[in-house]
Amino acid sequence: MSTVKKIFKVREMSSFLFLVGLFLLVGLINPKFLTGSNISACFNTSVVYTLVAVGMAFTIFIGEIDVSVGSNLGFVATVVGSLLRDGANWGFAFAMGLIIGLIIGLVNGWGVAIMKVPSLIFTLGTNGVLRGMMYIYAGGAWVENLPKSFKDFSSVTLIGNFTVYYCCAVLAVVIIHFLLTRTRRGQYFIAVGDNEGGAQLVGIPAVRTKVLAYVICGVLSAVAGIIFCSRIGFVTSTSGSGYEMKAVAACVLGGISLTGGVGTVIGAGIGAVIMASISYLLVFMGFSSNYDNAITGIILITIVVVDALMQRRAAVNNRHARLAARTMTADAAKKEAAAQ
Amino acid sequence: MKLLKKRPTFNWNLFLILLLAAEFLIFGSANPKFLRPALLLNSVNDFLSICIISLFVTFVMITGGIDIQVASIVGLTSITIGVAWQDFGLSIWGAVLLAILVAALCGALSGFFIAYCGVQAMVVTLGGSFLYTGLALLVSTLSSTEAYQGISGFPDSFKRITQYKLFGVIPFQIVIFLILFVFAYLLLHKTKYGRKVFLVGVNQQAAEYSGINSRLVIMSTYVLSAISAAIAGIILTSYLGTAKSDLGSGLTMNIITAVVLGGTLSTGGKGNILGTALAALSIGILRFGMPLCFKVNTQYLDIPIGVLLIVVVVGRSLAGNPAVIAKFARLRGRSKKEAPANP
Fold first, then answer.
1. The CATH number of the domain where B170 resides is what?
2. Cβ–Cβ of B130/A249 closer than 8 Å?
């Protein structure tokens, strides 16, 4: 019984309910939406967002941010795509992609954790560099004519209508969630984000944890880049731009606080599904895709403002409760003194 | 105290002037065409929006915030002018006024959420950038012209803003930039309002206790930056002769780089307009000179700008590192007085 209560208390539950509500609302407007294939399509399209958002979640947990994930994704997709197009071994191409992601993560981690540069500014810089390198690598051209087997792999389903990619992503998210919440080292991330000085004082290697968070973010974005390549089937010079914003939005929607130290990767995964579904849902609601950005913005702003107001109210209530408790004990002490 | 604070910024501005001079020297020797005044003056059109907007984003960053929605407001302004003029039948100046008003409202909305609801500036302006890009797209669908074509055929009086040349040489938009520069400089460094902006950035609580309406000050900086984005949007629209909803996309990194390179502390409390202007100019010259002199594709320009940003922030962080300072102190026999605090 208590586990059920616990489940409803966690922050990402509200995001999940929001997602269900969104689906039901669209179903009310257009009953054609509520079929298994449509709903699974919403989840399947979210796989790239999910991976990027989970990576982003790590950097947000430690109280930083990484806006280079979009270019990271694009660059890895360009490299892996052109390697595969030229007939390279799949394993080699994927390994290259992951190594690039790892290096990007290390550079970002070095800048933010060791050089102590504000993360937004540092990763904005790496974002520009990567975007430029992407142009140079591809020579400004599209990467096309990927092997058919690689592209077709994106539509292989595993359970019901869910693709192999999405199932693997979900499995990965669940494993990461348990590593983060159940292991000692996993909890370092939240601890560092919540109170860096405190974490350092109790012996947590804060700098190493931060670098690790960026490395995880870089590698997950690289994986997302490989999957992007397989799903879309071509890479343009602007591929991946804007993903950083959508990933942050997904994290916020999933109940992760940007001040760090609060949230779960499962929340990020749910937020990613919401972000990925919006344009799909709009079609069923009879809007043109022109509304996509505006509605994304409205949802994002509404959620963060409501979250901030609720947190403030909770803080005020807590203070009142503390004050009341204090006066009560004072009153009790006075009465006792009077009785004596 | 004042002297101590002044000295590093002076040094930094000196460095920026040297950077500018070095750029002129390198580009000029690589390709003498670069130094032709007419070409140089015309090149300003390509990066003027960076210069104008970064002046006022400096205000936002001094209060400790950040504004990544300005790029989307440029597009919104442009398309609002087009649609209001062509499809709502407003006069062109009415349309311009309306666009500025819309931009100010957008800035005020984000500023309100940031200042009065206590949401992080980063998130709100991130949402704002989605929202205003989306709005710009929606506004463009109101028009009878297809969105990808853009609205053109503006009256000559509007186009003349950017065609008029002062003394026959200086494009009028440079004059606008200079006026805005002086305005921003006076506002930040010579008025009470500017002092309030600094104090709010140094310590919002202290500002609040000393009777400053800190929330209003914070909100107003976002209105200012949004209006500057609107002005940039107007100039771009006039210069290109077309109103498009996606003008200004891709400006964000350049603007933030300009402000940070200009010596503004991203944690707030420190910064100056002269530095921002110099930094914005050097970024602009870089964007103009690289393709002209070294045949660098304009799409690769993100690399030098990104590298510049990283080098500056890492360098400044090194300069604030106690170990490095001590080393320099031993070398120079006197210690650097101010170490920028990092979060």
1. 1.10.3470
2. yes
Mutate to test the interface with A, among B124, B287, B310, B316 (most CBs of A within 10 A): B310
Tokens of B260: 């940070």
CA angle centred on A253, ends A218 and A291, rounded to 5° = 100
In the stretch 243-272 of chain A, residues with CB closer than 8 A to chain B read 245, 248-249, 252, 258-259
CA–CA gap between residue B47 and residue B236 (Å, rounded): 10
The predicted pLDDT at position A144 comes to 83
* B305·A118 Cβ contact <8 A: no
Q: Is some CB atom of chain A closer than 8 A to the CB atom of B134?
A: yes
Residues B42 and B150 in one domain: yes
- Please give the tally of structural domains in chain B: 2
> Which residues from B are below 8 Å from A252, CB to CB?
123
Interval A259-273 mean pLDDT: 89
Best interface-test mutation with B: which of A104, A115, A295, A303 has the largest number of B CBs within 10 A? A115
User: Would you call A301 and B299 a contact, using CB atoms and an 8 Å cutoff?
Assistant: no
Q: What is the pLDDT of residue A6?
A: 61
Smallest CA–CA distance, residue B36 to chain A, in Å, is 29
Decide if the complex's ipTM is over 0.90.
no
**What pLDDT does B297 receive?**
74
Instruction: Measure the CA–CA gap between B221 and A195, rounded to whole angstroms.
Output: 30
Tell me the pLDDT tens digit for each residue of B108-135: 999 999 999 888 888 888 889 889 988 9
Q: How many CB atoms lie within 10 A of CB A331?
A: 10
Mean pLDDT on A188-215: 92
Residues 117-146 of A with CB under 8 A from B: 117-118, 120-122, 124-133, 135-136, 140
Which residue in the set A118, A140, A288 is minimally distant from B299, CB to CB?
A140
Q: Which is nearest to B133 in space by CA: B248, B298, B304?
A: B248
Q: What does the H/E/C string look like for chain B?
A: CHHHHHHHHHHHHHHHHHHHHHHHHHHHHHCHHHHCHHHHHHHHHHHHHHHHHHHHHHHHHHCCCCCCCHHHHHHHHHHHHHHHHHCCCCCHHHHHHHHHHHHHHHHHHHHHHHHHCCCCHHHHHHHHHHHHHHHHHHHHHHCCCCCCCCEECCCHHHHHHHHCEECCCEEHHHHHHHHHHHHHHHHHHCCHHHHHHHHHHHCHHHHHHCCCCHHHHHHHHHHHHHHHHHHHHHHHHHHHCEECCCCCCCCHHHHHHHHHHCCCCCCCCCCCHHHHHHHHHHHHHHHHHHHHHHCCCHHHHHHHHHHHHHHHHHHHHHHCCHHHHHHHHHHHCCCCCCCCCCC
Domain residues for the domain of B60 are 2-296
Decide if B305 touches A, using CB distance below 8 A.
yes
Is B217 in the same domain as B328?
no
Residue B50 in any domain: the answer is: yes
Radius of gyration of chain B measured on its C-alpha atoms: 21
Residues B22 and B155 occupy one common structural domain: yes
